[in-house]
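Please check the following for our workbook:

***
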Amino acid sequence: MSEERSKSTRKRANSIKECFANGNSKLRPKGREEEEKKEGIFSGICALFVERGVNGMRLQIWKKRFESLGGTIADPNKKRVSRDLNYVLAVNRKALDGLPDAENLAKLFLPYDWLQTCLTEGILVSTESYQSSVVLRDPETTIVATAALEQQDLARTCQLQTPHVTNPGEEHKTTSEITSTSRESSSFLDTTQDGTSFLVKTEENATITAGTSVAADDQEEPVEEEDASSDEDENMNFKEKLRRKQTFYGKQESPNLNEHLTNPLAEMWHLYEDVLGDQWRSLIYRKTVNKLRSLPYKVTSVEQIREMYGVGKSLVKMVKEILGTGQLQKLDNLKAQVGEIQVLGSVWGIGAIQARELYKKGFRTVKDLENYSSLTSMQRMGVKYYDDINLRIPRDEVADTEKFVRGVVETLAPGAWVNAAGSYRRGKPTCGDVDILITHPDGSSHQDLLARLVQELRRIEFIVDGLRVDANARKGGTQPDMFMGIFHFQGKPYRRIDIKVYPRHVYAFALLAFTGNDVLNRKIRFLARVKFGYKLSDQGLFIRESKKKDSKASTESIPCETEREIFEKLGLDYPEPHDRNW
């Protein structure tokens, strides 16, 4: 009897799972299923589902929902397009390459975003805005522009508030007019694997229309782009383009109007990413934060974001809680759980993974680590100077440090170039550490310079602790000499310092890389690869064998004397260092 009851229970559980998989949390009578299938929004529609580039579990859910709402799934093994086939659903057109009768399949192509929108809205959405796309004329720089679904999201959310006025004369523009304008832009939105967006300049007269969309997981916040290209636009400086586009490399000119929401959600993002190492959850929060930051109005009601693409029910509940109470209980609970891990992870040289391992071993505070013999040299310095080096460094103190180091370098190698990089060069009021980059214009005096410099700085008791000097530049090539350590200057707290000496011919690449910020670096490196087939690093701009991420690159860099030249090689306007805080 108990065995029969157990079988019955399992059968019931499987039935419930099926209902959830079909997007319905309520059990439905069997008679209703056939009735709903006949009257579903996809009734009479036959579609081919292309698997390439789609998560398997998500694809199965889409298929079940499609069939449950009256749709018919075509056989993917047929060699010719059937007359009954209405649509071919895929991530993008490129996913159709290599399929039987691909040319005819492309005529019926629709992105999965159309299907997702139909399921979200509960209606059969028009396919018109999803069926057109433009590809750059040069096959080597082919990237499909994607905007349709995100523009619809922007339109839905903007209807609830007066649109933000960017330019004089735009007060009476409707959302649809703004969206229409963006389709004629001389730039288009591209999206990196980490979910961040940037604008890529297309060839002259290329027109971007709403069309093929990237995979849902890779989409990012909507952006309004500039008007159609002109000769004046080509000569427009970076700041003017910021004003005209609203967005450039994903950075908005207007302030974040939703800090009341983005601040607590960003804390969730960083706790999951930096402390718990949960990249999936951190990605969800990061995308939501970016979407909210991009809105041209302040969110005061949960209804304003309920239909925003990519923002699920749980996040909607969190936003509702923040708007209602000014707090987020889940954040408070998470902080209480991970607080001690976070402290361990804040020690110089200890990352999120090791912090969790140390926590499992019973360590709870920085003091607990003082006698732990397995720490590296860097970690021991991090523990020894923990209180001081976790303080922010005022900007004027970094300036004094740069001036002092430059003076010492001048006595060792007259004419050398010395620059403080990082957040200091980007104009930030405080810094976490001091990054010093050095080279010599004669192309040879930089060799062995760092070893002599560190020796002198130790002698005058400026450097009080540090790791060994990694000497590479003296051997020629592109690699730098590097030193990381602790310095004490003018009676101020102990501070962290990184000193790198590069050969002159790669100094511009090093200056760009270590000025940052990291968001800009990721974006332009991604663009260099997918648009030109280049590999960009702190040591040069190299031609790859292909545009694949793991493809081999040449050993000889494309020469660039300045940062400006690097941006020109990538078809981008040069941003001043203080414009790189994205």
In short: The first strand starts at residue 46 and ends at 49. The chain has 22 helices and 17 strands. The CA atoms of residues 454 and 560 lie 29 Å apart. The mean pLDDT is 74.
